[in-house]
Each structure stands twice: as structure tokens, then as C-alpha cells.
């Protein structure tokens, strides 16, 4: 594994994208930053600009209007290498919005997703466990 | 081999390499203290280094509407200026190598990182970055006035000397005007570093990191490095100008390190116990409150000098 | 002076949700604001019509993660209004406890985010640390951190175990000293005063004109609160005060929220101590045809639901009006004239929740023509006719 990837795993800066979620996953992501969970211990930071991001945390059920933007953001604006984490039931399978007229397609039909974290919403512990899985996946450990 | 010595001084010690290493360590102290204030644990010691290496490996995106050459060179200009300041300060403190007027040079060089941020922001062509750059410009205009008055007081108190070596020998903090100007200079440094409450130019939640918004990869890494080295250089400048300089004989080392850490922690605590002010409030604060106080301190120092009262 | 447009959104660190605010600025001063929504629309009203009355509660809960009690509360009240029935006493108390717990955590969350927007991350961290304690209490009482799934038409789904009550009370009591300290830290901070006082003024008349709700109206001196005006749940059985301030600015909204947390703590404690015994559910078997309305004072203001039943086991029509829908237009009165830095905190001060507010508007591709419901139906029918003609079907 090269040095860049190693450093990437040590300091993943996350950017958070909501594609029509109920806010709960987004709030739980923010919760991970706060004193009880404090993911800065592992070098993770929430960044303000998409250009600084290494990890995209995508929540929500894939709304028509916002998926166009998400696709554009992933393809044009994020500096590579970049990984995508789908957070919550909605990002996995659109959850209970699967029959909605405004959530036509699942997330991974538009952008490649590396790890899914299930839950409605996933607890912060689950999110941290998911990120650990992601790190192990990149390291090549099953 | 004078020239080799200078190149060594600029690139290895006390220039680039040394400044960068200590600067990254200072960033860690900043983040750790911040975390402790916020009831968190904070990042590991090597975290700033990981961040830097990671950014070096990332893709560099250049905005379509921007000027490529200016956009990429702006970060380097800022970094070189800070390294130069650091070299001058350490040479003066360690070996007494100095030239007449190096204080003035340092004061000028310290503006360049802010200018680099402005130029970079304007070159990216993003409206938010432009807003950030214009705020940075207003901020420079705001804090430079009290800062220069402070420097004038320093020159006056140290017997009309503009050589850092001689200024470093006189601890100015031992008088009323000295305390005042030291505090004002500390606040100016807060603004120079772009820390809360004066992080108006960067303001992540208002204008999405302002001038940095379009930067990614290596240029962003260089900007982060500039910030880190500033965090190291500016407290050293404060120590040199106000607290009697650096001393590396015997217990002096401990004393120097303590002085540095105290100033660093003070800056970080100010950062974490205040919300961000508006740009107009920042300008008002520096011009209407700090500048008159600094001027008053200057007048006090003049009286002290005329009537030879050391505590004024 | 040259005007430029600064967009806040759709993906911006200011908001958790994707929303687009177009601020027209002259230099640093905002002269106009336009809101563009639709990034979060999931068609919940339509989804609710395909679920039966019990299932709908779960969909309604996912309207918004932070108001995940308010919407089910208003919805179940609307369904009970169709029959009409009164829910058992114990269920009333349990509903009140959950709703007030949600208010505390929602206000703490707002405080944290407001601190974050002001660049005051210490407040953000401290408030959210405190919020974790509240979420613990909610987990003890309902089994979930968020999305409590406690409500159903005719009562509550899950009883509060009486063994859990002492622990919950202990945890709530432990919160109060920390909250006191934070209250002091916020109310005494001179820089916060400088940042929040006198900005985003919404006068009493404007608040009435725009039909502002919740803390947004109560900070402008309009004493309007569903819990007091038309008591439901256990709100008329416990003693609490409505918090109203006259300062009309962002500071007033912050103070209202801060003091409301104390009232909510008082309500939760009283309800937990005086929890009556008895049934928790009426076991409603069928809903007769008819219409019903239900309202609940959510942390952001009144949430209003309308349900029509046609005698089947599904709602024939379900209409949601969230509080932010009414509060959002007040930005037209508060934001123009302020600077960009103030605009962000004024936007945040109404505690906007767009996922509650989301609706769809159809706009023609060229111009700015907006289509209404009738017009869309007409267009749809015309297209069907056209397709039929093309296929040769009469």
C-alpha cells in the first residue's frame, strides 16, 4: 500500500451530502464529532468545502433534484482519491421511500458506493464501526 | 562560505525544516487544547503530519474561470515569507546575526501571507472566495494600525532601536505601556492567524472557508503549512519583541519553551471561548478601541522615556 | 453598486439539509433573498395514502428526524378527531413526556448549531454533550435515541416501565446544573450579545402578518402556543409557563428557546412523577369516513395535520403543514438589509427544518412560470389525450 493511501486512512476528511433524508442520519453524523464519540481521535474532520473532502457521506433516499447535483459533485468536484459511504437505510435501499414518485433510483446506480451503514438512523457507534470496516476494506483485510 | 551558511539556515535550521516541524507540532497543540476545552480527547500527535502527507497525494483541481499561474503560486509566496520571518527571528535570537531594520522587514513580511490568501482567493474566481478575500483585505487594514503603533512603542522602549537583537534584550512587558501593547499585539496576532473571533475571512459556516474554497491537493497542503508555520512564528515574534527574547543557556531553554507554550495556549483559549465577530465589528474593535489604547500606551511610553520612569 | 448573487446551498456547511438560498448582495449587504426548495422532497403525503392508518405513523415519523414525535402526535390527533375518541389518561401523559423530551433535545441541538454557525464551536460541543444525556433518557423511556415509534392512533405503542422512571428522573436532575452553567455562560457573553442583539428584527405586526409560529413568534411578543391555547395531552394537567419575550431579534429567539428547555424539563419531571395507571391504547379497529385535524406545538412551532378517511383502512388524503413552512417567509422581512455574516445566523434563528417543509413546484423550462395543481392536472390530461390520439385510441 502506498504512502498516500496510508495517510488517507489516517486523516479522512469527510464531507456530508444529503439527498433527501429525514435529517436523523445527518444529525447522527454530527453527533460523531461531539465529546461522547469524538472521531477527531482518528483524524476525521468535517470540512466545509467539497474540494477538501476525502470521504463523501451520502444520506437520504436519492431525490430527483439532488441526485443530479450529487452525481456532478462526485464526478467533477471531489479531488480523487475519494471514497463514498452510504449512511442509513435510505441510502442503502431507499427504505420506506422506495415507492415514492420522487426517489426513482437507488444511490449506487449513480455513484459507486464503498460501504453501507444500515440503520434508521444508525447510531454513532454504528457509523464509527462502518468507517472502521471501510478502512479495513481499503487495507485489504476482510 | 557565507552563502552556504545562509542556504543552510534558510532550508534546514532554523528555516524551512525546523519551522515546519515545530509548526506542525504547534498545530497539534492547538487541536489538542481545543479538544480538551471542548471535553474531547483530540487527535494523536502525528495527525498534522498525516493531514499534510495526505493532501500532497490528492488531486489538484484548478477552477475553470481562474488564473492558473496565480492560483498555484499564491500559496508558495505566503509560505516563503513566513519561513523567511522565522529564519530572521531565530538567527537574531540564536547567534545575534542581524541587520539594521530587520524589525521593519519582519513587520512587512508578516503581511505577505495574508496577501497571498487574498491573491489566491481572487484568482480562483469563486464569488465566495472573492468575498473572503475582500474581508481579508478589510481585516488587514483593521489590525495593521494598532499593530504598527505597538511596534512603534517597542522601538521607543528599547532605546530607538530597530534591530531585533537589541529589542530582544529589553523585556518590554515590565511596564504599564509594555503590558498594554503586548496584549494588543496578541489580539492582532489572533487576527493575523485568522483565528476566532477574527476568522471572518475563512468563516466556514458563512462562506465555506472563503479564499480556500477552491483549493485542493498540494496548494491546500502548502496553505495549511503556512498556517502551521505562522502558528509557530508569530508567538516567537511576540516573545522576541515583548518578552525578552529566546534564551538557550541552562534553565533558559525551559523558560523559553514555557513562554512559547503559554502564548500558544492563550491564543487557543481565546479562540475557543469567543464566537466569530462580524467584519464591521472587527474593524470597529481594532480602530475605535485598540488603536486609541495603543496610542495611549505610546504616549505613556514617551512620558516614561522623557522623565525616565521605568514603570510607565 | 454592483449586485452579485451568493448562493447558500444546495450543499453548504451551514445546513444539514440540501436547500438553496440565493442572497442578492451589494458588497456585504444582503438586499434580497430567494429560497429554492425541492432537494429533499420525498412525497410523504402520497406515501402515507398507500399505507394503512397504523403504518402511516412510521412514514410520518420520517418526515423529519428532529420532530419525529411532533408529526406523529399531530397525525394521531387528526385520526382520533375523525372518530372522535379521547385517548386514555396514561397514554396522554406518555405522549407528553416523549414530546417534551424531544423539545429539550431539539432546542439543545439548535443551540449547538447556532454556536457552530457563529464560529463558537465550544458551545456546539458542550450543548451536544448535554444532548446526549437527554437522548439517554429517551432511550431509557422509549428504547430509541431518535424515531421513538411510540405513537399510534388511539394511544401509545409501548408503555413506560415504572422501574425505569427513577433512573430517568435521576438523569434529568443531573442535567439541570450543567444547563444552568451553560445558561449563565450564554447570557453573560458580551460577544454573543454583540452578535445577536438587534439583528433580524421581526416586529410584532410582521410576526402576525406572516403568521409566524413557535419560538419565532413568541420572541416577537406574540403569545401563541397550541399547548396553552387548545390544551391536549397532559398539558392542562401540569403547571408550566409560556415563554414570551418582546425583543423581536435573534437574541430573543435564543432566550425563548433557552427558557423553554427549563419548562420542558419541569413538564417531563411532573409527568414522570404523576404518571397515572390504566390502559395505554384504545385498540381502534376501524376508522369511519370523515375528516379530522390535529395540531401539536413542535419545537419549531405548530405542526398541523389534516386526514380524510373514506371508510377503508387507508387515509384518502393526508395533508401536512409544518411550522417551518410558515416561518420561512419571515426571512423576507428579516434578512434584507443585514450583512452576509448576519444572514447566516438569521436563517438559522427560525430553526429551519426543510425536510418538514419540502413540497414540489413545477416550473416551465424557459421562464419562471409556476404551475398550480389544477393546471398540472389539465396538462396531464392533455398529454394522455395526445398519447391516446397518437395510439389511435378514442
Structure characterization notes:
The complex is a heterotrimer of chains A (142), B (312) and C (394). Chain A is an alpha/beta fold and 142 residues long. In chain A, helix 2 crosses helix 5. In chain A, 38% of the residues lie in helices and 15% in strands. In chain B, helix 3 crosses helix 11 (217-242) and helix 9 packs antiparallel against helix 11. In chain B, 53% of the residues are buried. With 394 residues, chain C is α+β, with helices and mostly antiparallel strands. Chain C has one domain (44-357): Cytochrome-c3 Hydrogenase, chain B (Orthogonal Bundle), CATH 1.10.645. In chain C, 48% of the residues lie in helices and 14% in strands. The longest helix of chain C has 29 residues, at 89-117. The radius of gyration of chain C is 22 Å and the shape is flat. Classes of the chains: A alpha/beta (142), B mainly alpha (312), C alpha+beta (394). Chains A and C meet through strand 1, helix 2 and helix 3 of A and helix 1 and helix 5 of C.
Strand order of the largest sheet of chain C: 1-2-3
Number of strands of chain B: 0
For the termini of chain C, the CA-CA separation is 61 Å
Low-confidence stretches of chain B: none
Shape of chain C: flat
Topology:
The complex is a heterotrimer of chains A (142), B (312) and C (394).
Chain A: H1 3-10, E1 13-18, H2 24-33, E2 45-46, E3 55-59, H3 64-77, E4 83-87, H4 88-93, E5 115-117, H5 124-139
Parallel strand pairs in A: 1-2, 1-3, 3-4, 4-5
Helix pairs in contact in A: 2-5
Chain B: H1 2-11, H2 16-37, H3 47-56, H4 68-94, H5 102-109, H6 112-124, H7 127-157, H8 164-169, H9 176-193, H10 204-207, H11 217-242, H12 252-272, H13 279-307
Chain C: E1 3-8, E2 20-26, E3 29-36, H1 44-50, H2 53-61, H3 70-82, H4 89-117, H5 121-142, E4 151-152, E5 155-156, H6 165-187, H7 190-196, H8 204-209, H9 214-218, H10 226-229, H11 250-273, E6 290-298, E7 301-309, E8 315-321, H12 323-327, H13 331-334, H14 340-349, H15 354-357, E9 362-363, E10 370-371, H16 373-391
Antiparallel strand pairs in C: 1-2, 2-3, 4-5, 6-7, 7-8, 9-10
Briefly summarize what is shown.
With 312 residues, chain B is mainly α. Helix content of chain B is 72%, strand content 0%. Chain B is globular.
Amino acid at each position: 500500500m502506498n504512502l498516500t493511501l496510508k495517510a488517507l486512512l489516517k486523516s479522512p476528511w469527510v464531507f456530508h451530502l444529503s439527498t433527501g433524508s429525514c435529517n436523523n442520519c445527518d444529525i447522527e453524523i454530527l453527533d460523531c464529532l461531539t465529546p461522547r464519540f469524538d472521531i477527531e481521535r482518528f483524524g476525521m474532520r468535517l470540512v466545509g468545502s467539497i474540494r477538501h473532502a476525502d470521504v463523501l457521506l451520502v444520506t437520504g433516499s436519492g431525490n430527483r433534484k439532488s441526485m443530479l447535483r450529487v452525481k456532478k459533485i462526485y464526478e467533477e468536484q471531489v479531488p480523487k482519491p475519494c471514497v463514498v459511504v452510504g449512511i442509513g437505510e435510505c441510502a442503502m435501499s431507499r427504505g420506506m421511500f422506495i415507492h415514492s414518485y420522487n426517489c426513482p433510483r437507488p444511490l449506487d446506480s449513480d455513484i459507486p458506493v464503498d460501504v453501507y451503514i444500515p440503520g434508521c438512523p444508525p447510531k454513532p457507534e454504528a457509523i464509527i464501526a462502518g468507517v472502521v470496516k471501510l478502512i479495513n476494506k481499503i487495507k485489504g483485510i476482510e | 562560505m557565507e552563502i552556504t551558511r545562509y542556504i543552510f539556515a534558510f532550508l534546514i535550521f532554523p528555516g524551512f525544516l525546523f519551522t515546519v516541524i515545530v509548526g506542525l507540532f504547534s498545530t497539534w497543540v492547538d487541536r489538542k487544547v481545543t479538544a480538551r476545552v471542548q471535553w474531547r480527547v483530540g487527535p494523536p500527535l502525528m495527525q498534522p503530519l498525516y493531514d499534510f502527507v495526505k493532501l500532497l497525494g490528492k488531486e489538484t483541481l484548478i477552477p475553470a474561470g481562474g488564473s492558473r499561474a496565480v492560483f498555484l503560486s499564491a500559496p508558495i509566496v505566503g509560505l516563503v515569507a513566513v519561513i523567511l520571518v522565522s529564519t530572521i527571528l531565530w538567527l537574531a535570537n540564536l547567534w545575534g546575526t542581524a541587520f539594521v531594520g530587520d524589525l521593519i522587514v519582519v513587520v512587512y513580511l508578516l503581511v505577505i501571507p495574508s496577501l497571498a490568501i487574498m491573491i489566491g482567493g481572487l484568482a480562483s474566481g469563486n464569488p465566495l472566495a472573492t468575498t473572503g478575500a475582500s474581508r481579508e483585505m478589510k481585516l488587514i487594514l483593521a489590525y495593521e494600525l494598532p499593530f504598527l503603533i505597538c511596534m512603534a512603542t517597542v522601538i521607543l522602549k528599547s532605546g530607538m532601536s530597530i534591530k531585533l537583537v537589541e529589542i530582544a534584550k529589553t523585556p518590554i512587558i515590565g511596564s504599564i505601556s509594555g503590558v498594554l501593547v503586548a496584549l494588543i499585539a496578541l489580539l492582532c496576532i489572533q487576527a493575523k492567524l485568522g483565528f476566532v473571533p477574527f476568522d471572518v475571512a475563512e468563516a466556514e459556516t458563512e462562506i465555506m472557508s472563503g479564499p480556500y474554497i477552491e483549493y485542493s491537493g498540494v496548494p491546500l497542503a502548502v496553505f495549511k503549512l503556512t498556517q502551521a508555520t505562522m502558528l509557530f512564528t508569530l508567538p516567537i515574534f511576540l516573545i522576541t519583541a515583548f518578552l525578552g527574547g529566546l534564551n538557550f543557556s541552562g534553565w533558559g531553554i525551559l523558560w523559553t519553551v514555557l513562554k512559547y507554550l503559554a502564548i500558544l495556549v492563550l491564543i487557543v483559549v481565546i479562540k475557543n471561548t469567543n464566537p466569530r465577530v462580524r467584519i464591521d465589528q472587527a474593524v470597529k474593535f481594532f480602530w475605535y478601541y485598540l488603536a486609541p489604547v495603543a496610542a495611549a500606551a505610546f504616549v505613556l511610553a514617551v512620558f516614561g522615556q522623557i522623565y525616565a520612569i521605568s514603570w510607565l | 453598486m454592483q449586485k452579485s448573487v451568493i448562493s447558500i446551498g444546495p450543499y453548504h456547511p451551514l445546513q444539514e439539509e440540501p436547500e438553496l438560498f440565493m442572497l442578492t448582495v451589494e458588497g456585504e449587504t444582503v438586499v434580497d433573498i430567494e429560497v429554492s426548495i425541492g432537494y429533499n422532497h420525498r412525497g410523504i403525503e402520497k406515501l402515507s395514502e398507500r399505507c394503512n392508518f397504523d403504518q402511516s405513523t412510521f412514514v410520518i415519523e420520517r418526515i423529519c428526524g428532529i420532530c419525529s414525535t411532533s408529526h406523529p402526535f399531530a397525525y394521531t390527533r387528526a385520526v382520533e378527531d375523525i372518530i372522535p375518541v379521547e385517548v386514555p389518561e396514561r397514554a396522554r401523559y406518555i405522549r407528553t413526556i416523549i414530546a417534551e423530551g424531544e423539545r429539550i433535545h431539539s432546542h439543545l441541538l439548535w443551540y449547538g448549531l447556532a454556536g457552530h454557525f457563529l464560529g463558537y464551536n465550544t458551545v456546539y460541543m458542550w450543548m451536544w454533550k448535554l444532548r446526549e444525556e437527554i437522548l439517554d433518557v429517551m432511550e431509557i423511556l422509549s428504547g430509541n435515541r431518535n424515531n421513538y415509534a411510540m405513537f399510534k392512533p388511539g394511544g401509545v405503542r409501548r408503555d413506560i416501565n415504572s422501574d425505569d422512571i427513577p433512573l430517568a428522573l435521576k438523569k434529568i436532575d443531573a442535567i439541570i446544573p450543567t444547563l444552568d452553567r451553560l445558561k449563565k455562560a450564554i447570557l453573560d457573553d458580551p460577544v454573543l450579545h454583540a452578535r445577536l442583539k438587534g439583528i433580524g428584527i421581526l416586529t410584532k405586526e410582521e410576526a402576525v402578518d406572516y403568521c409566524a409560529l413557535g419560538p419565532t413568534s413568541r420572541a416577537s411578543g406574540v403569545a401563541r402556543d397550541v399547548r396553552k391555547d387548545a390544551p391536549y395531552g397532559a398539558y392542562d394537567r401540569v403547571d408550566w409557563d409560556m415563554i414570551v419575550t418582546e425583543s423581536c431579534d435573534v437574541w430573543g429567539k435564543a432566550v425563548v428557546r433557552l427558557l423553554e428547555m427549563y419548562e420542558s424539563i419541569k413538564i417531563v419531571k411532573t409527568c414522570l412523577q404523576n404518571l397515572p395507571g390504566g390502559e395505554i391504547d384504545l385498540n381502534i379497529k376501524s376508522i369511519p369516513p370523515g375528516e379530522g385535524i390535529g395540531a401539536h406545538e413542535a419545537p419549531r412551532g405548530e405542526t398541523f395535520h389534516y386526514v380524510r378517511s373514506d371508510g377503508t383502512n387507508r387515509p384518502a388524503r393526508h395533508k401536512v403543514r409544518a411550522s417551518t413552512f410558515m416561518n420561512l417567509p419571515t426571512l423576507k422581512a428579516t434578512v434584507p438589509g443585514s450583512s452576509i455574516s448576519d444572514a447566516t445566523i438569521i436563517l438559522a434563528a427560525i430553526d429551519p427544518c426543510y425536510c418538514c417543509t419540502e413540497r414540489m413546484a413545477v416550473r416551465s423550462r424557459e421562464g419562471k412560470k409556476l404551475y398550480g395543481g389544477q393546471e398540472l392536472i389539465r396538462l396531464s390530461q392533455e398529454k394522455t389525450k395526445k398519447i391516446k390520439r397518437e395510439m389511435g385510441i378514442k
